[in-house]
Amino acid sequence: MEHWDDLKTALHLLRGGTLAAAAQSLGVNYTTVARRIARLEQAVGETLFERLADGYQPTEAARLVGEYVARMEDAQLSLDRRLKGRDQRLSGSLVITAPQLLIVTHLAEVIEAFCAAHPEVDLQVRATNDLLDLNRREADLAIRISETPGDALMGVRLTEQASASFANADWAERIRTRPADRIDWAVYTGLGAVPKASLKAYPNAAVKVQFDDMVALVGAAQRGLGVVRMPMFLGRATPGLVQVPVLEPQPYPSIWVVGHKDVWPSAKVTAFRNILVPFFRGRRAEFVA
Amino acid sequence: MEHWDDLKTALHLLRGGTLAAAAQSLGVNYTTVARRIARLEQAVGETLFERLADGYQPTEAARLVGEYVARMEDAQLSLDRRLKGRDQRLSGSLVITAPQLLIVTHLAEVIEAFCAAHPEVDLQVRATNDLLDLNRREADLAIRISETPGDALMGVRLTEQASASFANADWAERIRTRPADRIDWAVYTGLGAVPKASLKAYPNAAVKVQFDDMVALVGAAQRGLGVVRMPMFLGRATPGLVQVPVLEPQPYPSIWVVGHKDVWPSAKVTAFRNILVPFFRGRRAEFVA
DNA sequence: CTCCATCCATGCACATTTGCATGCCTAGAG
DNA sequence: CTCTAGGCATGCAAATGTGCATGGATGGAG
Fold this sequence. Notes:
The structure is a homodimer of 289-residue chains. Chain A has 289 residues and is of the alpha/beta class. Chain A has two domains: 82 residues, Arc Repressor Mutant, subunit A (Orthogonal Bundle), CATH 1.10.10.10; 198 residues, D-Maltodextrin-Binding Protein, domain 2. In chain A, 43% of the residues lie in helices and 25% in strands. The first copy, chain A, is built from ten helices and eleven strands. In chain A, strands 3, 4, 5, 6, 9, 10 and 11 form a seven-stranded mixed sheet that branches. In chain A, strand 1 and strand 2 form a beta hairpin. The longest helix of chain A is centred in the N-terminal third of the chain and has 26 residues. The model of chain A has no long low-confidence stretch (mean pLDDT 94). At the A-B interface, helix 1 and helix 4 of A face helix 1 and helix 4 of B. Chain A binds a DNA duplex (30 and 30 nucleotides) through helix 3.
């Protein structure tokens, strides 16, 4: 058990299932993975993987290895976070993540202010709706729209939010003048139905199309495909959209900034929060009804 | 934090204090240690050790590293033991440890029987009174003379024991014929005094010499330097020594076979116990009064 | 059935890592 | 004060580890 790197390699192979997958996640060539595994098996004196045509099939011993090496990895990730957390420099790398649309409408301004205030910091923004793993330091700080801070251990609520219905000017006019006409909805896949709260006042409504992406949904609304439910800030900030009375303003998950408790005290993370939080305090009106 | 081996190197350097010490415990050249530490500091972006004339002095960050890498090592050692424990082969390496004198008098026979029964096993015996660390698998199985099984988690008492006073034939004769004469004791360093229990019957006694090694003490007794307190089995098995009535038989720590619970079920360890335990059951009389 | 996309094994050349030899520095003994 | 032992840095050559290219095997799509 000389080579801890070989153990790490075995863990990645267990997760990836194939040499190529493990190699990619490790950033090495797959032949290297094969050789490290061979060396590890030599050291352990036991076969860890059956070489099959469709990948390396782990033996029971390999699963045992995986169990304990995962603990090693946990310790390593904790160390990584702790070192990040005690970093008092305002230079070097900082990784944040946020939903694309929030960046477009508001965060770009925050990011710009942060970059101006701390030009030495090498800021990287990961714009995605995916929940990146803050334990693995896929990001140091996350801005999320959700009921709870999520998997991270520290969080500050930036603002509560409401949602409402928006559409383009044509639709707004039509709804105002002929409220009994059929109303087309464009909705997010998964919801798949017209919001119930709107049916009492506007029962003549149906889903016309579903999208699995919020950016696309916004585009659809601009184009006039129908009425879309979205958070207030997004509807208000999108050119060509106006609020329509089809769906009264409703509660919507809050916006949080969350981070791992180990990383939270870091100078760069603190500095970012110190710009982010006041920004949202000052613009609260854009998010609520 | 790419290279886990560098983290391991830092741990050894923290423990050893110097490049040379760390290098030796890792089995590499000390220049390698220096270079791995340099690479690790690069990766962490922080100085971990101050280079001083008398060694590498850890910074606070290095101690943080040490704390978490020790956890990684714990996991690795656990894995090592678990893999050893599930090994059902009766071949390969088996490491046992026992006190030298017990090997000389009794265990040699057990070891011989084991080697005969399992010739494929590569048995290594570490003859020492030091308590090897079974957590670190410095040995798979330990035979120990102590009140408790010690740091290991599984143990079987092989036999209880008594101790008594022994001396060579000259002394035995002298004590028998002139019991009031002064009695010389040779004792183990640390005890440093004549056993109290002997003073009532033989008050005219004094320590003549102290030894820090039991083998040497036995030799001294054979040579006639005086009376020595030792476990029954040792006095009885040592040529030239006879029991003398100066010290009545007294309780003495039992003999245990102990091992880590993870390693205990291993085929080789079990096989060794299966020879060891019956052997002691059958020879109990040699250990008690 | 054939083609193609994956996946794995292996030989060879290159890159990186390691060990060794040398030299410098410091602290402590004589 | 000198001398020595222990500790560290560095250049160079050998050993080891890695990537690339090629070839073989398998399973699913057309």
